[in-house]
Amino acid sequence: MTLAAQGVMLTVPGRTLVEGLDVSLAPGQCWALLGRNGAGKSSLLLALAGLSRPATGSVLLDDKPIVDHPRGAVARRLGILLQHDAEDFWGSVLDFVLLGRLPHGTGLFGADPEGVAQARSAIDAVDLIDHADQPYRTLSGGERQRARIAQLLVQAPEYLLLDEPLSHLDLQHQLELMQLLAGLSRAGHTVVMALHEPLWAARFCDAALLMYDSGAYRHGAAHDVLNQENLEALYRCRLEAVFGSGYPLYFPVPS
Amino acid sequence: MRSIPARRPIVAALAVAGPLSIGVALAFGSVHLPFEEWLHALAGQGSDTAREIVWGLRAPRAFAGFAVGALLALAGALLQVLLRNPLADPYILGVSGGAAVGALAAMLAGLAGSLVHASAFAGACAAALALFVFSMRFTGWNIHRVLLAGVGIAAGAGAAVSLILTLAPAGQVHGMLFWLMGDLSGAEHPLTGWIALAAALALALGLARQLDGLSLGPLKAQSLGVAVGRTQALAFLAATGATVSAVMLAGSVGFVGLVVPHLLRLAGFTGHRVLLPLAALAGGTLVVFADTLARAVAAPLEFPVGALTALIGVPVLLVLLARLR
Description:
The complex is a heterodimer.
Chain A: E1 3-12, E2 15-25, E3 30-35, H1 41-48, E4 56-61, E5 64-65, H2 71-77, E6 78-81, H3 93-98, H4 113-125, H5 141-155, E7 159-163, H6 171-186, E8 190-194, H7 198-204, E9 207-211, E10 217-221, H8 222-225, H9 228-235, E11 238-244, E12 247-253
Parallel strand pairs in A: 3-8, 3-9, 6-7, 7-8
Antiparallel strand pairs in A: 1-2, 1-4, 4-5, 9-10, 11-12
Helix pairs in contact in A: 4-5
Chain B: H1 8-27, H2 35-42, H3 48-83, H4 95-108, H5 114-136, H6 143-167, H7 170-181, H8 190-206, H9 208-214, H10 218-223, H11 228-250, H12 256-266, H13 272-296, H14 305-323
Helix pairs in contact in B: 1-3, 1-13, 2-3, 3-8, 3-11, 3-12, 3-13, 4-5, 4-6, 4-7, 4-11, 5-6, 5-11, 8-11, 12-13, 12-14, 13-14
């Protein structure tokens, strides 16, 4: 019952993003994925979701290459929040969120009352219930992001891969989303998210994977890995730590 | 906050308007039939002339028009989600351009009737084949290449059509223009259109849920379990088949395939299980009403139905767009 990368190398034309990556993502774990822009966080998430093939190595779901599982069966167990998707959806927020039920299937013209109930509850969980019947295209950027997260929740996967889930969200909704995702991992789901703010990773994740520009990587318990030395090397800039509520907040400072 | 409009009244209105459009098409035309005589003819009684007018002339044309509109709207709805381009319409892939070249070349050669049809069909098939060969040949399916190849083929066909129109003697140009603008006067055999409609609709409905996923983009669709390549290929097949069948019946009736799916999306229908059959119903209804107007408004003069579909559809679309937030 694990999702694992085994000897994974990811490349883009002219560059190796990561090489020889071995990592195992167990149920109940909440992983933060950190790195500079272009370090390969999104590419790794796509590979972990089975949406792209690594140059070498493989991603295994239950010890079998994920690309060898039927696509529909994977979709019932693993969901991904992409960094971008279509912006021109014409239906309501509820219609949009209900698309997360696709892998679970209904009859051709079958109503899906259970799905509608789940969708409403997911919309409520991301604080959008007052907008449920509003056209999706009238939502603000942050509200769309929350609707997209609700769609992922309705998919009800064991593995949730999220590419920058906090983008466009205000501070209150950032906090609520991190609490929601941490809660899901405590309930046995595996959560993996690409983040740009080490503070959120330190507060809510129990493991972290740092992807360096060189193609090297480092992973381990969040409280071990997320230290000043590692983060300065990762972001290639000097950081100054300020402590509040027991967690360090790092400010970049000119070197 | 603005809610999505209520959808049931629209479905109900269309369910009434569809059969009503056929009824109106059977009732009106260049020859005036008194109501009682028309009712008798409808029931298969009354004079031979009245029965011939209603069942021999008006009915085949009405049913053919309905099939044409339904096929075009279905093809448009499929291509818009497939190409993720709101400007996609059944003619964007160049298939109807191929049919036009075939038809006009046959007319130029002095052929008529079924030979023109056969030549149009050959032209459509040649265009579809060229599309497949150029867009899929070496590196597999790529939807952007399909679109660009289609636009290229359509442009080439447009050039060929211009050339034929320039070369054609003045006496043939009128018939050619009617073919190009879309015309139901030669559509005597609606059955083929209805068979094509049933087949294309069945295929498309089988893909409806996958198309819903595809409207989120191919990568997200794949993550939701949609077999993206297979869905795109089958939807493309259904759209091409529907377009060819419509063009064979009535030439290039414009606007239906572009505007009808948009009207329904603007009205809040986004799920393809409902959108596709409703687009077929609305497209068929629009063409039958437009053709009845084309026949009756200045009888015995007939307008090409394609001009009427645009004249009805354009204002409706513009008003809806202006109201769109």
